[in-house]
Amino acid sequence: MSEPPKCAEWLLRRLVGGRDADAVAGDLRESFEARGGGRFWYWWQALSCMAVRFSLYRRAVPGIGTDFSRALRRIRRNPGYALTAMLCLALALGVNTTLFSFLDSLYFRRLPVPEAGRIVQIDRKFGDFCTWRGFLGFRDGLRSVQAAAKERSVDPMEVDHTTFRVQVEGVSANYPQVLRLGTTIGAWFRADANTMLDGAAGDEPEAVISYRLWQTRFGGDANVVGKQVRILTSDFRIAGVAPREFTGTFSPLRIDVWVPLPASLNRRVDLIARLAPRATLTNAAAELGVVGAQVRAAYPGDQLLQGAVRVQPASGLLWQGGREILRPIVMLLSTVAGLVLLIACVNVANLLLSRAAVRRREMAVRRSLGASRARLFRETLAEGLVLAAGGLLLGILFGHWTGSALEWALPSVPFALYQGLLFGIDWRVALFLALAGIGCAVLFSLPPAFACSRQALNPAMKGHDSRNSRQREIYSVAQVALSLTLLIATGLLVRALQHVQSVDPGFATGHRLHVNLSAPDRGADKQVSASVFSNLVQQTRELPGVEDATLAWGVFPMVGVSCAGASRETAKKTLTNTVDPNYFDLMGIPIVRGRGFAPAESSAGMPNVIVNQTMARTFWPAADAIGKTVWLEGCDGDVPKPGTVIGVARDAKYQWLSEEPQAFYYVSRRQDPGGNGFYSLIVRTAGDPRQWIKPVLDLVERRGGGMIVYDSGTLDDAVAVTLWEVKWQASLLAALGLLAIVLAAIGVYGVVACSVAQRTREIGVRMALGAAPLDVQWMVLAHGLRITAIGIAVGLLLSAATVRLLRGFLYGLSPFDPIAFAAACLAWIGIAMLASLYPARRATRVDPMTALNFE
User: For helices 373-409 and 360-368, what crossing angle results, to 10°?
Assistant: First the structure.
């Protein structure tokens, strides 16, 4: 065939177009003739040329390189605005990086063990999972998972005559095999480790310490293996040191010591497990349901085996109660951090719009010379991406610094909640930061890109820019509205903190300290234990400056939980405390009806009980509680015991200052002398109680008969600790709100400054005609205040619609608190005046002759 396919040649010329099509078609015709034909070859070559013509690389990549090159040149010529934009982005991205690292630690971070994705946690929605005998049933009956048992406690550890508290994780002997754990030095337990503590083996039980404890308490001694330590009342031999990154399976707690669990059939344990090679969560859940039913049938009286079983990946915060507590805080902070990032994007968009206003004539000339709208749009987008990349790099540094500052500066929170939450940057955090940076670049580049590509040529050539000016003012109004909403929310939380701090706890806290103690041997005779505690109280009262001392099982916010009911059948979970007779006088809790406990309360017959007002109203609503029988301790199938109500105490706060009134009862330590070996020594002093903490601790060490000290401090501090949640919320929201205000103030300043620059000729004319500098200043300030006033109006409407969501954080304070709203509005008016002040003063320094020649 002498002629190439006409259809292929027509498509080539039609789709490639121009002189390129003529040249390619001519070359292909010559090659076709030289080959002596070949329709398939010609079609292949023609389609290849068309594919190259429409390829993404040919259409985009060379142009993108040019766009980025021009963007970098423009930024080098105007570094001030570029640095401002990058810093705004860095601040917002850094805050969001810190928050996401917190979320990563809370929900996604896996255990640092081999094949961590196959580690699962088996639990129930509430309470312990099962007993030791239940664990044995699950361990032997399951095939899809390999389960290990664990429990946690806080115990004193004695090393070389020095005692300190440690977090202890008691585990089954197969725990290291399930998690595939190695050691830094030494080894894990023997296979019979759990029976050794019950006396079945004569060897000394072993313990494994954490890498952190090894470094801090043992100085990284390589000969630590074999060293003797005492935990609570038992001696252990250190068998090894856990891997550096492993901190246990009770996240966020960092475990210090692992010891074998005594193989006691009624011991309560939780389960950690590893999925079999081909098993899935669905398989494991189905098998657990079957095996769970078999175990319940084997032990029908075991209440801990009741309830639905959950199987979920072991990631993030493994303590479900901690997740529930932190979830509202996480939702609040996520929303606020997102708003801060949005404000930053609007701020950068305003800066780019200002740049577009300066370049409007250049863009119009380029449009008139043939530049396409897509080309101009792409250039502006490239500039935004460069700014985003700079903000991203600075945001990583700022995020690292913010995480460190947050760990150092935040108000103290409970040990169990906070110590294991991390603010480091890993690959998930880095990926989030990169995606956030790209999203921000697109978000703040779109408005100026559309403004540049769609502006009308004639007005732009003449220098008119009213549309861009209105757009920048709208963005500033949005910034003011969003930041005002955050400022009002911050004010509400601060007011809530003030409100909850003013709540009467119902007991006296001043001049009082507490020392939480444990008997050296909780298995000793109760009378002996009671005598040791009683002697210690008497000796404490003899210390100079001590007015009185008493004992109670718990001290705010730690109380006991038991069961109580007006009848055998109505017993339900109720808070309780075991106290000395003088407890009510020392704590300032009045007995409103009846009497208190007598110093010589008899342990024979029914125990005497004092109930609070709420319990009296709830249990006996139509009768006087005095003399009534109350049934106690009837929990989990136990036989309830009767008691006699002899008094009604005034309601108090027992766990949180924000709690609603709840039922509570007291029993006398005289009628339960030994308790369970734990008591709090509460001391009333004549002066600052902190001065008496050390003398009391010294007395416990000298005269306490080996008592173990768990904690000590003042009652004022104990009450303050319960405010950690509202302090955390108020502090974080205040920091984020301040950042949002700074970003919004920069936006207001930019709009006012740009307006002054655009009105330079008008200002010059006014001053040439005799306008006073003060009039010019007020004209500029009025512009900034007008934007702020509109933003405040929008922000108030937005706040009125959203502050209802904060009701759960306000602890009884109204979400429409007028003081918080008024203070936020006045603060923003002052901020707007400060942001407009410099442009206003600069406007008064304009030389009329220079302004009249201004272009």
Answer: 150
- 586: buried, middle or exposed (CB in 10 Å: 19+, 13-18, 0-12)? buried
Cross-strand partners of 155: 166
pLDDT at position 502? 82
- The answer to whether 683 touches 692, Cβ cutoff 8 Å, is yes
Q: Do β-strands 572-579 and 664-668 pair in parallel, antiparallel, or remain unpaired?
A: parallel
DSSP state of 315: B
Which residue in 604, 611, 650, 603 sits closest to 627, CA to CA? 611
pLDDT of residue 202: 47
- The pLDDT, as a whole number, for residue 201 is 44
Residue 56 main-chain phi, psi, to 5 deg: -60, -40
**Calpha distance 634→568 (Å, rounded):** 8
For residue 816, how many C-alpha atoms fall within 13 Å in the half-sphere facing its CB?
5
Note whether 645 and 566 are within 8 A (CB). no
Burial 322-350 (b: 16+ CB within 10 A, else e): beeebeebeebbeebbebbbbbbbbbbbb
Q: Yes or no: say if 225 and 274 are a contact pair by the CB < 8 Å rule.
A: no
Q: CB of 323 within 8 A of CB of 315?
A: no
Q: What is the CA radius of gyration of the chain?
A: 37
Q: Any idea what DSSP says for residue 660?
A: P
- Reduced to 3 states (helix: H, G, I; strand: E, B; else coil), residue 147 is strand
Strand 234-241 relative to strand 206-209: parallel, antiparallel, unpaired?
Answer: parallel
Pick out the chain residues at pLDDT < 50: 198-202, 411-412, 415-420, 460-461, 464, 674, 855
Q: With contact defined as beta carbons under 8 Å apart, do 676 and 524 qualify?
A: no
For 16, the 3-state DSSP assignment is: helix
Convert 223-250 to b/e letters by CB count within 10 Å (16 or more is b).
Answer: ebbeeebebbbeebebbbbbeeebbbbb
644: three-class secondary structure by DSSP: strand
Phi, psi of 110 (to 5 degrees): -95, 165
Side chain identity at residue 380, one-letter code = T
| DSSP SS3 for 450 | helix
- The model's pLDDT over 320-334, given as tens digits with 9 standing for 90+, comes to 666 777 777 778 778
CA diameter of the chain? 125
CA distance 386 to 368: 27
Predicted confidence at residue 10, as pLDDT, reads 83
